[in-house]
Design a protein that fits this description.
The protein is mainly α. The protein has 6 helices and 2 strands, in the order ααααααββ.
Length: 182
């Protein structure tokens, strides 16, 4: 006779064996850790994240949205000033962080099924503004044909300066919570 084994899934601080900012709310902690992971790529700064997170009440989706959208808007304004002063490195770095914060602001609204979330459009705008002044990357906004005559927005990144050559192309599609600007 086979023995039935049951294992209860871990909860709280044991859920991932990692740091949880809000041990009582794994979903929020997971999204905050996701945001913190951008720090190694220059897409976020810990002090900026913490300045918003420390004032949030877990589960307050509107607080999350307004806190991270406000941070993103401040950085967007700073990036615009830097670009106007021809400080392109500062502008690019700052718009890249604004892009991520605008997008992360939308996280819980998107999960709740909201289709029109203003910060998503702001995120794309900041990403595109950064690419417009970034001389180190060749990024072109494209529409990828999709079924029934529709298309999906995307970006074409080329490593070949002379686009007259044909080259292998890869289309990368993220999961439900991924976005092209990542």
């Amino acid at each position: 006779m086979a023995t039935e084994w049951r294992v209860n899934p871990p909860t709280g601080a044991d859920a991932f064996g990692s740091y949880l900012f809000w041990p009582e709310n794994v979903a929020w902690s997971t999204q905050l850790l996701r945001l913190m992971s951008y720090t190694s790529l220059g897409g976020a700064e810990f002090a900026e994240i913490h300045s918003v997170a420390r004032s949030l009440s877990p589960g307050d989706g509107e607080g999350w949205y307004s806190g991270f959208a406000r941070m993103a808007a401040e950085l967007d304004a700073k990036a615009q000033r830097a670009a106007s002063a021809r400080h392109s490195t500062t502008a690019v770095d700052t718009w890249d962080r604004a892009c991520i914060y605008f997008r992360i602001a939308a996280t819980f609204r998107s999960i709740e099924g909201h289709v029109e979330v203003p910060s998503i459009d702001e995120s794309r705008r900041c990403f595109q503004a950064a690419r417009a002044v970034d001389n180190s990357a060749s990024v072109e906004t494209v529409e990828v044909p999709y079924e029934n005559g529709n298309s999906l927005p995307g970006y074409f990144l080329s490593s070949i300066p002379d686009r007259s050559e044909r080259a292998p192309t890869v289309i990368v599609m993220g999961g439900i919570d991924a976005f092209a600007e990542e």
